[in-house]
Specification:
Elements: H1 3-26, H2 28-38, H3 75-85, H4 143-168, H5 172-198, H6 202-216
Helix pairs in contact: 1-2, 4-5, 4-6, 5-6
Length: 220
């Protein structure tokens, strides 16, 4: 046999083997025939739409019967149920009314608006006054005016710190103290403005007006 004939024979043999393998995989009759020739026996499972009895391992579904197990009742549960409906004699003094319970006791009065806690609306960030360091400072040539201006700055700083605490924790105590200090500082600023106008100190007037605007932003 020549080399050409050998090559042709191997090509034909490979083609035949490939056809047989593909037929065994994709063609069910060939697959069953191959299993019989090879001695393989695969168990066939019933299809979902099949109702033949012989295709089910344990018979048809309607023939299956479940076992009924008689479970005794829980004795503890029964005793609890009987305890709710059975009156047992109890040794001791007769029951007496308990303060706060019973039909004859009066209910506590309904809370009024004065009893409710004070709710204070939170302050928006855009309404927050600026700190004392952000306000432009001036030095007055008049010693008296300059002393009043320095005192107003210190009081404004204390009031600003109090207002920051009030915004974080709005309580009635902060509100009462802040309202009082705000009124006192506004009175001091009014006196300072009159003193600056008397001394013709325009720079002091501008700083006093700026302080007044920031103090009025504080809503206690």
């Amino acid at each position: 046999m020549t080399a050409r004939n050998k090559k042709l024979a191997w090509w034909i043999a490979g083609t035949v083997i490939a056809v047989l393998v593909l037929s065994y995989i994709f063609i069910p009759p060939v697959h069953k025939l191959g299993d019989k020739l090879l001695g393989r026996s695969e168990k066939e499972y019933p299809k979902p739409d099949s109702l033949k009895v012989d295709e089910f391992e344990y018979g048809a579904p309607q023939d299956l019967k479940g076992e009924i197990i008689d479970v005794p009742r829980d004795s503890l549960l029964d005793s609890l149920m009987l305890a709710d409906t059975t009156l047992m004699p109890v040794d001791g003094p007769p029951p007496a009314p308990i303060p706060g319970f019973g039909d004859n006791e009066q209910l506590p009065p309904m809370p009024s608006d004065s009893d409710l806690p004070i709710k204070i609306a939170p302050v928006k960030p855009e309404n927050m006054p600026i700190s004392i360091d952000d306000i432009e400072h001036y030095v007055s040539s008049n010693a008296s005016v300059n002393a009043k201006l320095t005192a107003c700055r210190e009081n404004y700083k204390k009031l600003h710190d109090l207002y920051s605490e009030f915004v974080t924790h709005p309580t009635s105590e902060y509100q009462e103290v802040g309202t009082k200090r705000k009124k006192e500082l506004l009175d001091q600023l009014s006196q300072l403005m009159k003193a600056a106008q008397s001394a013709n100190d325009s720079n002091c007037e501008e700083e006093t007006a700026a302080l007044r605007r920031e103090v009025n932003k504080m809503k206690f």
